[in-house]
Structure formats: C-alpha cells, structure tokens
C-alpha cells in the first residue's frame, strides 16, 4: 500500500476481511465501498444514514442501533488518540514495528474500564 490508498484497498490488503464470520455486521462511514467484498464473505455493511435520509420504521430502529454503537466505537478510537506516543512524530526507524506499537496501545486501552456498563 502506498500513500493515497483508498479505504477499500486498505481493507482488502489488511487481511481484515479474513477475520469476518458469516452474518458479521461491519460499520463504516458513507462512501466506504466494501459492500461486495463483505457479501463474498456473507457479512453485512451498516452505514448510518445522513441527517436528511428518511426511512421506514424497521430501518429507523436498525439505524438507531447502529448510531448508538457508533458512539462507543468513536469513544474507543478517542482512547487511542489520547495516548501521547501517537501524538508525537515517530522516527522512521520505528516504521517496521508501528503495527506492534499500535497493537500494544490498543491492548492497554482494552484494560481500561469498559466504555459501556453491563447493566
């Protein structure tokens, strides 16, 4: 992957799709063009509607659930962004282990108190 890779290219080349099970639901922003790749793995794509989109009742309930879950995803991402090392410019010598660095930071964030109460 080079600079300027598309979202689709990043997802396909990252092996993320190989982690999916049939009937998994993947949330993504508008314009994320991976629906066909998900269908090949019998997974589904959930994209929250825009503010102006009107839908029938069953879709409204699904969209509310997706929007509610998206809040938690954003909170989890924000936890990663609060880590000081990710705010700094990293030396090019760390490029080969950047994935390991991100994985360790994500694992440490997962040790924090839950984002959602179990009640």
Automatic annotation (TrEMBL):
Cofactor(s) required, per the database record: a divalent metal cation
Keyword annotations of the record: Metal-binding
A Pfam family annotated for this UniProt entry: DDE_Tnp_4
InterPro entries, per the entry: HARBI1_dom
Annotated DDE Tnp4 domain residues: 5-110
Domain of life, source organism: Eukaryota
GO molecular function annotations of the record: metal ion binding
TM regions (residue ranges): none
Family annotation (PANTHER family): THAP DOMAIN PROTEIN, TRANSPOSASE HELIX-TURN-HELIX DOMAIN-CONTAINING PROTEIN
Protein name from the UniProt record: DDE Tnp4 domain-containing protein
Organism listed in the record: Sinanodonta woodiana
């Amino acid at each position: 992957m080079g600079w300027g890779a598309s979202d689709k290219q990043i997802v396909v080349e990252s092996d993320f799709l190989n982690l999916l099970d049939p009937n998994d639901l993947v949330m993504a922003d508008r314009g994320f063009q991976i629906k066909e790749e998900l269908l090949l793995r019998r997974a589904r794509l959930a994209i929250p509607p825009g503010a102006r989109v009107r839908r029938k009742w069953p879709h409204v309930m699904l969209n509310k659930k997706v929007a509610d879950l998206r809040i938690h995803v954003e909170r989890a991402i924000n936890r990663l962004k609060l880590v000081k090392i990710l705010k700094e410019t990293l030396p090019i010598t760390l490029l080969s282990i950047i994935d390991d660095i991100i994985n360790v930071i994500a694992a440490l964030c997962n040790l924090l108190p839950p984002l959602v109460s179990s009640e």
